[in-house]
């Protein structure tokens, strides 16, 4: 009687959404532009019920127009009950040009999620993927779609890095079109690329990874063009907003994507990774990834147990019934920190607690920040919170089952990961951040401010902590005398912060001896697990590698050999056993070296075979053979050193191939570090050492080559420039080893091209930095003399060609003379340059890598810099001497104590030890050389057709001026050079400040005239650096009581505008006492941007009795 439902509702030309059911009354459907009519097919559930179409003339055929048409259907039951169904039909316009969906074949994700009004997408594919097929869907089959101008079903070949795919959509009537773009990015190949053509190898080499450009980008307006792999230049730009190769500031829009270069490079021919194993295939770079998966010469990963069972130590301890005796004595106990981890829970099931811990570990991995991203979240949402919860659940499981070794081991893995969470990703609990340390950004800002105060008081570069505290104390006292209490309080805050930070840093070296280090706790848990199950190869592996980090190499070797005896085919056990063999106190025998080399090579090849497989997924820090594991990378560097003597001959990588592999892996890992912590610094050391080893190898190779000078010199010069740039921008704290590497690199550049003005300038800067590090040593006296000679040679060679005899100033330097003498002896008696012993280098690298804050560093990979070996075999273990104080270059402190915040991001680049102590950002911009094509002439018969011309640069003059300013006898020459710098580069602040420092004692007004020549911007655009200039003008004029000087008023107003009114209160009070009311009115009106007759200002002037 009252049934008013429809049993069937079908509309031709489309599909209802949702699917029809009698209970649902509202539907929508969409039809194509070619559909002009639709027909309704209706049937009521009750045959006695009736239906009416409430549209048009009531016909079941509905005429459609473009857009939406609403059709209502009224169903009347037998008793008169009425029910209405509604169908909203949308006819697509023939003018629509859009997609309804977009995906990539193979379930490859596209980001962001598709929307028809979003036109740009990106997708990442594995490195072995040669082509992709896009699957665009259209709402109207009359809409035409092409992919890169071809049929959309055709696969698109992808480049080595980025490929832009364009999906062109044309409306049904052809009147409109729309383009969707998908940026397809291939994963990064984990090995170094070798081109068949040497020129392409040079042209396509990234300065950071020393392998083929990956997603290349260039620096806008760089000349010549400076190109980098995208991940690495973005990493460097986050540290300092300067071009790494020229030091020029990066402006807006500095990054230029080089898609054409990517495409051209992808079609170039390269050799197979496994050429050293006999593969002679040559292919396009874009095909290299897919070939590496199926190459028949790829290491299979299969190992021979005889490599272990035939060793003398195995026969001695494992072939008989006796076992290897281990010295380690350890007792299982519950420590206080472990008790604090245990949580109160009703859960008594160990399995359930472990399952919860695993869930938290998955959350941790999902929420880790990406490179370049700063994670900001509450404590309970932080990845570190998930990690801590996993540790708590494992600790609670241990309480339930104390004798289960596996639980102790799993807790150890989590504790070790906590170290990486804080050091690599910068994760820290909010309470700890607030109590112990500021965020990285604020900490860096405070350090910049401290260095700015140091410069005001004559402590240049990166002074010792004692000098920094001394400068802050002086600034505090002077600000108190000037009545600037608020600024004095802030300086006092900086003083307290630095004191606290220094105390914390000094305790790092002994932290492992206490029960507060996450790595120390991890070792304790590994030892707990081992004590319960000493026959576990896995527990012996982790105990052994962490003992290596602590320098306990004898114990470590015992654990690792025990594990390897139990599991002879395990590649990680082999690699770490090889490392331990070379780190023993006694010198390794030739047989031991071969055994260690074999184990290290097998570890490397296992890693490569894993990375070159479809089953490989993103690595994490828990893997012992991981490019994030500095210990593993250090082992590869050691392998490279062994291979310099061809320790392994059959199907083994050469030393250069090993070093190249390390450089590629280290560069990838450094770029993944979100935080510039200890892990990042250790990885950077590996990268620098690999660079330096390759540079020395290249130099030796070029010295053996005859013929084309360009072919020999260009790679060396390029590598020297790249390594200098990396040292300049490193986050490693200034130390003597870094200075030595920088100086050696610059020397090699000069040896390669002795008449290159730019190379000589860099050498002078490195030598000047050596002097600034310890001005009172005998070595520093030679360094300052050499620096003067290098700068003078650089200046003399300007506007001259680089071809010819070495300049006279270079031949006077002792290091050059010694090198020339060594070269003569080498000609008389050829001899291979030999680096330090592998065992000694392995020992120096003992305490670095995964597992703890390594504190020292091994020397460069091939030739040891001339520094005494540190007492502890770890980077940073010794206290390196920062740059010492140099004569003050900026007069007293009326000037800005804060740096220019607009350039704060680049501050790190100006504070490194390898730069002259007082070098500014502008001074870091040496001009590059230009190439000149010349025609042969009688005068230049011996000059090659391609001979670069040295450009003029202010940097060499600034460096020479600084070197001369250290001696009273040469300060007049220094003054003249500073004037030349100002004429050539008027915007270099330091040139003015340093010249004034020399002039002020004898002629203060001449010093004022120097500052007045600085090209100041309008007051509204002035930076803190500019405010330093105006502040100095005010200070000098007020000290000389030059109240009527025309520059006093404008400078006072500009300084107060930038630094704040409180910064000029002392001067205002003095001027009031001197009744300089006209000047005061002018200053105040300028600062406030108003006319003097402004009504509000007039009231203020009357109140102050200035009118």
Automatic annotation (TrEMBL):
Q: Which residues form a coiled coil?
A: 462-489
Residue ranges of domain Cadherin-like beta-sandwich-like in the record: 19-91, 99-186
Top-level taxon of origin: Eukaryota
Q: Where is this region: Disordered?
A: 817-926
Q: Where is the composition biased (Polar residues)?
A: 904-921
GO MF term list: ubiquitin protein ligase activity
InterPro entries per the record?
Answer: Cadherin-like_domain, RNF_E3_ubiq-protein_ligase
Ranges of compositional bias, category Low complexity: 874-897
Keyword annotations from UniProtKB, A to Z: Coiled coil
- Pfam families attached here? Cadherin-like
- Please cite one Gene Ontology biological process associated with this protein: protein polyubiquitination
- What is the protein's name according to its record? Cadherin-like beta-sandwich-like domain-containing protein
Q: Which organism is it from?
A: Solea senegalensis
């Amino acid at each position: 009687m009252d049934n008013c439902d429809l049993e069937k509702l079908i509309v031709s030309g489309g599909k209802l959404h949702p699917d029809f059911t009698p209970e649902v009354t509202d539907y929508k459907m969409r039809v194509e532009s070619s559909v002009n009519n639709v027909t309704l097919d209706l049937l009521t559930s009750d045959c006695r019920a009736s239906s009416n179409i409430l549209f048009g003339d009531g016909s079941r055929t509905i005429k459609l127009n473009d857009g939406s048409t609403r059709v209502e259907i009224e169903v009347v039951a037998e008793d008169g009950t009425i029910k209405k169904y509604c169908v909203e039909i949308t006819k697509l316009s023939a003018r629509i040009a859009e997609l309804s969906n977009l995906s990539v074949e193979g379930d490859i994700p596209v980001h962001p999620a598709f929307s028809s009004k979003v036109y740009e997408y990106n997708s990442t594919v594995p490195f072995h993927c040669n082509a992709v097929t896009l699957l665009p869907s259209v709402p109207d089959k009359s809409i035409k779609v092409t992919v890169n101008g071809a049929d959309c079903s055709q696969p698109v070949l992808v480049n080595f890095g980025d490929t832009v795919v364009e999906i062109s959509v044309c409306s049904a009537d052809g009147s409109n079109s729309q383009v969707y773009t998908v940026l397809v990015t291939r994963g990064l190949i984990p090995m170094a690329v070798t081109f068949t053509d040497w020129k392409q190898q040079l042209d396509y080499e990234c300065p950071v990874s020393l392998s083929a450009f990956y997603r290349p980008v260039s620096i806008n307006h760089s000349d010549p063009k400076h190109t980098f792999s995208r991940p690495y230049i973005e990493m460097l730009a986050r540290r300092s907003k300067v071009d790494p190769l020229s030091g020029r500031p990066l402006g807006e829009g500095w990054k230029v994507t080089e898609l054409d270069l990517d495409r051209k490079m992808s079609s170039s021919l390269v050799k197979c990774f496994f050429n050293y194993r006999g593969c002679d295939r040559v292919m396009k770079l874009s095909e290299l990834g897919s070939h590496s998966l199926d190459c028949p010469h790829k290491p299979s990963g299969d190992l021979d147990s005889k490599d272990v069972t035939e060793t003398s130590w195995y026969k001695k301890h494992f072939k008989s019934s006796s076992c290897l005796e281990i010295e380690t004595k350890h007792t299982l106990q519950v420590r206080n920190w472990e008790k604090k981890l245990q949580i109160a829970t009703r859960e008594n099931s160990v399995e359930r607690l472990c399952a919860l811990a695993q869930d938290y570990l998955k959350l941790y991995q999902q929420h880790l920040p990406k490179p370049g991203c700063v994670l900001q979240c509450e404590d309970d949402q932080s990845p570190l919170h998930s990690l801590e919860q996993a540790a708590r659940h494992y600790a609670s499981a241990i309480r339930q089952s104390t004798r289960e070794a596996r639980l102790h081991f799993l807790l150890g893995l989590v504790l070790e990961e906590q170290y990486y969470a804080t050091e690599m990703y910068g994760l820290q609990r909010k309470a700890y951040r607030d109590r112990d340390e500021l965020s990285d950004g604020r900490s860096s800002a405070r350090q910049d401010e401290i260095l700015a105060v140091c410069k005001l008081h004559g402590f240049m570069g990166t002074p010792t902590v004692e000098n920094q505290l001394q400068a802050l104390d002086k600034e505090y006292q002077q600000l108190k005398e000037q009545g600037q209490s608020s600024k004095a309080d802030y300086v006092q805050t900086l003083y307290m912060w630095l004191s606290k930070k220094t105390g914390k840093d000094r305790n790092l070296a002994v932290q492992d001896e206490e029960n507060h280090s996450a790595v120390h706790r991890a070792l304790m848990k590994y030892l707990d697990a081992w004590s319960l199950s000493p026959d576990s190869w896995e527990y012996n592996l982790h105990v052994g590698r962490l003992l290596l980090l602590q320098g306990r190499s004898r114990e470590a070797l015992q654990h690792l050999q025990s594990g390897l005896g139990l599991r002879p085919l395990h590649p990680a056990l082999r690699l770490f056993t090889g490392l331990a063999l070379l780190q023993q106190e006694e010198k390794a025998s030739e047989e031991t070296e071969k055994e260690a080399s074999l184990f290290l090579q097998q570890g490397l090849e296992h890693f490569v075979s894993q990375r070159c497989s479809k089953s490989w997924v993103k690595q994490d820090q828990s893997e012992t053979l991981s490019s994030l594991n500095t210990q593993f990378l250090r082992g590869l560097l050691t392998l490279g050193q062994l291979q310099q003597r061809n320790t392994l001959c059959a199907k083994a990588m050469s030393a250069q191939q090993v070093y190249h592999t390390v450089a590629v892996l280290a560069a990838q890992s450094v770029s993944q570090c979100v935080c510039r912590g200890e892990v990042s610094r250790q990885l950077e050391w590996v990268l620098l050492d690999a660079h330096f080893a390759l540079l020395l190898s290249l130099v030796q190779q070029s010295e053996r080559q005859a013929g084309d000078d360009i072919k020999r010199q260009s790679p060396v010069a390029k590598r020297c420039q790249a390594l200098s740039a990396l040292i300049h921008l490193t986050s490693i704290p200034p130390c003597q080893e870094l200075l030595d590497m920088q100086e050696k690199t610059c020397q090699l550049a000069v040896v390669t091209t002795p008449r290159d003005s730019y190379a000589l300038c860099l050498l002078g800067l490195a030598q000047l930095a050596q002097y600034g590090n310890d001005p009172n040593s005998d070595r520093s006296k030679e360094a300052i003399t050499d620096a003067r000679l290098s700068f003078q040679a650089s200046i003399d060679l300007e506007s001259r060609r680089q071809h010819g005899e070495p300049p006279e100033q270079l031949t006077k330097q002792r290091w050059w003379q010694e090198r020339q003498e060594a070269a003569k002896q080498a000609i008389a008696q050829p001899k291979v340059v030999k680096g330090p012993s592998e065992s000694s280098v392995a020992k120096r690298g003992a305490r670095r890598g995964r597992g703890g804050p390594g504190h020292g560093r091994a020397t460069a990979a091939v030739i040891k810099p001339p520094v005494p070996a540190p007492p502890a075999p770890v980077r940073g273990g010794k206290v390196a001497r920062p740059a010492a104080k140099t004569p003050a270059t900026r007069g007293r402190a009326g000037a800005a104590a804060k740096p220019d915040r607009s350039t704060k991001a680049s501050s790190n680049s100006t504070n490194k030890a390898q730069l002259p102590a007082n070098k500014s950002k502008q001074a870091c911009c040496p001009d590059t050389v230009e190439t000149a094509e010349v025609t042969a002439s009688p005068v230049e018969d011996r000059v090659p057709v391609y001979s670069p011309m040295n450009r003029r640069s202010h940097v060499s003059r600034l460096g020479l001026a600084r070197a001369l300013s250290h001696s009273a006898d040469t300060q007049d020459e220094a003054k003249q050079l500073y004037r030349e710098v100002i004429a050539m580069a008027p915007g270099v602040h330091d040139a003015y400040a340093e010249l004034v420092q020399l002039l002020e004692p004898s002629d203060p007004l001449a010093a004022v005239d120097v500052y007045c020549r600085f090209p100041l911007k309008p007051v509204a655009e002035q930076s803190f650096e500019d405010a330093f200039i105006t502040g100095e003008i005010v200070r000098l004029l007020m000290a000389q009581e030059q109240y009527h000087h025309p520059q006093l008023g404008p400078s006072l107003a500009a300084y107060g505008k930038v630094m704040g009114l409180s910064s000029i209160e002392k001067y205002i009070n003095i001027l009031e006492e001197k009744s300089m009311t006209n000047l005061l009115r002018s200053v105040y009106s300028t600062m406030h941007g108003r006319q003097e007759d402004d009504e509000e200002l007039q009231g203020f002037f009357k109140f102050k009795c200035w009118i």
